[in-house]
Hints:
With 353 residues, the protein is α/β, with parallel strands linked by helices. It has a single domain, classed as TIM Barrel (Alpha-Beta Barrel). The protein has 14 helices and eleven strands. The chain has helices at 4-9, 16-25, 28-42, 85-97, 115-128, 138-148, 152-161, 177-183, 190-202, 219-236, 261-274, 285-296, 313-316, 325-334, and strands at 47-51, 53-57, 102-106, 132-135, 166-167, 206-213, 239-246, 280-281, 303-306, 338-342, 348-351. It has a four-stranded mixed β-sheet with strand order 9-1-10-11. Strands 5-6-7-8 form a four-stranded parallel β-sheet. Helix 3 (28-42) crosses helix 11 (261-274) and helix 11 packs across helix 12. The longest helix has 18 residues, at 219-236. The radius of gyration is 19 Å and the shape is globular. The relative contact order is 0.16. The structure holds iron/sulfur cluster (SF4).
Amino acid sequence: MESLSEKISSGYRVTPQELLELSNGATLSELGALAHAVRLAKHPDTTVTFVVDRNINYTNVCTSECKFCAFYSRVGEDGGYVLSRESFRQKIEETLELGGTQILLQGGMNPALTLDWYVDLLRWLTTTFPIHVHGFSPPEISWLADQSQLSIAETVEKLKEAGLKSIPGGGAEILVDEVRRQVSPNKCGVDKWLEVMRQAHLAGMRSTATMMFGHLETPAQIVEHLTRIRDLQDETGGFTAFIPWTFQPTNTDLDVEKATADAYLRVLALSRIFLDNVDNIQASWVTQGEKIAQVALFFGANDMGSTMIEENVVSAAGVDHMLPKEELIRVVASAGFTPVQRDCFYNHLAVCA
Ligand code: SF4
């Protein structure tokens, strides 16, 4: 009888139970070999893509108080901010000068900001600058819908009409309510996270999906998360990429050990093996550093994410890996792959060899 590894190598769809068995029983090198074979079957040309963009965190004021977050300020606390238009202008002009093609807009759940504020901001951004706005993760959109007493579909439509082009998959953490109740009790639950993505995809927008692991979850809950993503992707086909990354515990309220590189690479490989309907899997150089990011390219990843001209959330948790575009190109090329700058939809813009 064919072994599971042989079946995976010839395109077999792994069941959640089989993935859990691999998670518990396979060695690191077995997982890497399997994930790399699946990656090469999907992307035989060994290019590794990246996007030049900037994270802009429009406000750090947040009522959600997630236990893993070192970024937010409470309402009224010193250090709370909402970015001015002038700050946006400076950041975006700098991004464009550096060859950037998009901004990633994310922020806290700030009760001072209404849906009209978001709509006005999007209209101004998209009529002033030639830049793609990738913004507002499902918890932000779900919260905005509640604040505005609109449905999620109506809220998504208003943001889209104002110029929003695609949605980042942030705020997923682990898509299991039992875990979310412990790490982010005030954020939207699993069904709402998925509903925002479903409505965005139905409205014609694409999005990414993420998973932040290495805190309170079990291996079975990681499998459950991946299953929810694969099921929604079967339904809508709207996810462009999956981005697993590890929780960074410094300056947070969660007292757990930082996940090892071994744990990261195992979950990355499992993601590539299981998510047969998601084309792109991103390496997280921001949390892992450039050396593990290079190894990640042999564990299923075919994308290096963003150059991140600016990043505030992970760096608030004490992680400060920065890679300018030229460095990112060097890192990819020296791992034996061809670096290619892409846009938000993974269209190739320039080969950077
Ligand atoms: Fe707020 Fe986001 Fe931080 Fe949670 S992770 S506290 S939602 S800013």
